[in-house]
Structures are given as C-alpha cells and as structure tokens.
Amino acid sequence: MLGSLVREGFRLTGNPQEAEIVIINTCGFIEEAKQESINTIIEHGELKQSGRCRLLIAAGCLAQRYQRDLLQQLPELDAVVGTGEFGKIAAICRDLLQPKRRHRRLWVSRPPYLYDESAPRLRLGAQHSAYVKIAEGCNRNCAFCAIPLMRGKQRSRPIESIVAEARRLADEGVKELNLISQDTINYGVDLGIRQGLVSLLRELVRIKDLRWIRPFYLYPQQVTDELLDLYAGEEKITKYIDMPLQHINDAVLKAMHRLGDRTAIERLIDRIRTRIPGVTFRTAFIVGFPGETEAAFAELKTFVAQAAFDRVAVFLYSDEEDTPAVRLPNHVDRSLMEERRNELLAIQETIATAKSREKVGSVLEVLVDGPSEETDLLLEGRHEGLAPEIDGVVYINDGTASPGELVKVEITDASTYDLVGHIVS
Ligand code: SF4
C-alpha cells in the first residue's frame, strides 16, 4: 500500500495529527488482535476533530472479514478496503477525496490478490532486513483458525517472481530475507511444484549479496530430509526453525484438526535437531482449546519442560466466528486459560534463561541492526537464532559497525531473551 501511494504522488507522514488520510491496516486473527484493531480505528477517528484527517480507512484482514459490520458500527470510517484490494489503494483514496464521491464505501472482493515482483514497494524500518511473502492463503482447516476464511485457499507466487523480488531487495542492500506465508512448508503445491520450498531456497541462496534467508511458519508435516539437509548444508539459510505445534495432547490435536500426533511430532523434533546441529527451535502453543482437560494441559507442561525449545509463544484460545471449534463443548474459562498461559511461560522462562546463559563466552556472528532502542550508547543486532521483531537482541557495548554489517561478537552477559557482548576483530 505504501508503494502504491507513493508512486501515485501521495506523501507519507509518521505523525497521524498531520495526515489527511489515515489508513489502519487491521488484523483479524484472534480476539486480542481484533480488539486492538478496533481500538486503533476509534482512537484515530478522533483525528477528524483534533487533527487534519479527512478520510479514515480500515484495510486488512478485519476489514475483509467484517466488511459491512465495520462500516455500520464505526461511523468514523469512510471506507473499508479488503485484502484483495491493496493494489488499488491509491485509486480508492483519490476516488474518496472527490467531493461528490464522499459517501462511505466498501471495497471488498473475494481474496484473489497476490502481489508480484512488479508491485511497487516501500519499506519502512531496517533497510537490511526484508519480509517477502511467498504465498497467500491456506489449504488446511485447523479448527480454531479463521485465516482460510479471510485469506482463501493457498496461492503461491512463482519461484521466478520471488527470486526477482529478492534480487532487487539484495541490490537495495537487504542482507536478511524473511520468507512468510500462512503455510510455508506447503509452498508451491498449488503450482504443482514438488518440494516447492526446497526448490525456492536453492534459487534464493544463489543471490550473492543475501546473507541470511529465514523461512517462517513451517507446519509440522511434510518436512523432508532434502529440506533439513539444505538447512544444515547451506550457510545462508538460518539454522532457525519456526514451527507452531499448537498442542501435544493427541485428543486436543485431533479436535484441532491438526495432522500428526504426539509421536509424529516428537520424531520430527528429533530429526530436525539431529540433522541441523545447533538449530534454534521456536514454537507456539494454544492453551484453553475447548475440551483441554487438566490432564491434557499437564501433558503439555511436561512436554514443554522436556523438549527445551529455545522460544515458546503461548496464545489463549479465542472463539473465531464460523470456525468449527466454536461449536465444540467444554469451553475453558478465560481466567483458567490465563493461568495456564502463565504456567507454561514460567516453565519456558527457566529454560530460555539457561539456554541464553550457555552462550556467554562464545563468539557469534551478529547482523547489526543499528543504535539500540534502549540507548544510543549501545548497538543492537541479532545472531541467526534471533528473528527480527520477534525474538530478543544482542546488545553491543564495545566496537563500531553500521546497520547491515555482519560482525563477530563475544558474548559477555545474558538475560532470558537478550545477550550482551563486544565486537572482536
Ligand atoms: S495451518 Fe496455520 S493458517 Fe492454516 S488453518 Fe492451520 S493455523 Fe490457520
């Protein structure tokens, strides 16, 4: 959207008070995200009185999903723009700015849109690290998940399109490429490409100036030896596996409509750790799925304690309209879900702290992100086991380097999520 707007002559501002058009890119994934999106719309609606705002637009997943409801219930909104209409955002803004067109509008189609390498792109934030979406939509039907309802079936971008975009990004100075989609392990199946992710990664590692390639969101199925060997043998692919497991109890996994049971998951984790020595394993779980008994949760706790993942995110189950889980019996109280989340996070905190401390004394390759957000006296960067904006950072308290530079850092201190060290020659 930023790329289209700038190409069409709109000027951007980071200060909402100054903006004549305010676009809120919403998320509709889980209850907390929906609430945050709605609060943001309401908050920015006040700019019509206190600022210069003439148009307030909701875009993104929540807009795609609740289209008319949003327009009806939030009178401050001038337009709702779905996920299939991103490419038209500049035209939509121009249209709405015309005095005689000032009736409130919905621009929502089914979600066929998939950008390609020709889409204009403007990247905010770090210039040496970029996200690239390799596919959109999801063919699975996890019982708790509304994403297929919002994003449709999987549509993968052709390998050539992704490679062309990645080349351009590398020419612009990108060193770290973060590959995202809803179901990255399944990349390419809709295009009939066998082992699509392997084929894609083989092409991407040939781009000279890229240093790290980091795929996100691997479903714990169809993980082939070829893929793991590529991770292990190709230095540009970060030894970082991001694989949401959601639960470990067989009955809960089945009710969630997840493929694979506990035995299969444990075997897969062993295979990954054996084939990719030193791998960082990040996962996510949902607590409070309907029917999650005390025993099922106890099993999850023991599993988390034993599996010793590097990082664990814990989400509370929330009823998402039109998903099968809504109709399941034995919903869990929110207060109990919160208790369960806290228990799981406490277990993980002990593990994460110990793992972090193991790094003290080692020398790691760190991608420098720039001056620290905490203080200009420190630099901030990440080793390959730390994903941008998700995991912790490495604070660098001695030595100089520019954003995007890879340097060797000797680690001298560690907290649960962050490390501290100095640059060594
Ligand atoms: S694989 Fe992920 S995106 Fe697809 S339905 Fe399951 S949770 Fe949702």
Task: Provide the fold topology.
Blueprint: H1 2-7, E1 21-26, H2 31-45, H3 47-50, E2 55-60, H4 61-73, E3 79-81, H5 89-97, E4 105-107, E5 129-133, E6 135-136, H6 147-151, E7 155-156, H7 159-171, E8 176-180, H8 196-204, E9 212-215, H9 225-233, E10 240-242, H10 250-255, H11 262-275, E11 280-287, H12 294-307, E12 311-316, H13 334-358, E13 363-371, E14 379-382, E15 394-396, E16 406-414, E17 419-424
Parallel strand pairs: 1-2, 2-3, 3-4, 5-8, 8-9, 10-11, 11-12, 15-17
Antiparallel strand pairs: 6-7, 13-14, 13-16, 14-15, 16-17
Helix pairs in contact: 7-8, 12-13
This protein binds iron/sulfur cluster (SF4).
The site of iron/sulfur cluster (SF4) has 9 residues, from helix 6.
How does the helix and strand content classify structurally? alpha/beta
From the structure provided, what is the oligomeric state, counting identical versus distinct chains?
single chain
The fraction of residues assigned to DSSP E strands is 15-25%
Helix coverage percent: 25-40%
The small molecules bound here are:
iron/sulfur cluster
CATH C-level class of the largest domain: Alpha Beta
Mean pLDDT: 94
Identify low-pLDDT runs. Answer: none
As laid out across the biggest beta sheet, the strand order is 13-14-15-17-16
Order of helices and strands: HEHHEHEHEEEHEHEHEHEHHEHEHEEEEE
End-to-end separation: 42 Å
CATH topology of the largest domain: pyruvate-formate lyase- activating enzyme
What is Rg?
23 Å
User: How many structurally independent domains?
Assistant: 3
Tally of contiguous helical segments = 13
CATH architecture name of the largest domain = Alpha-Beta Horseshoe
Which descriptor suits the 3D outline?
globular
CATH superfamily of the largest domain: tm_1862 like domain
Described by strand count, sense and barrel closure, the largest sheet is: 5 strands, mixed, barrel
Number of strands: 17
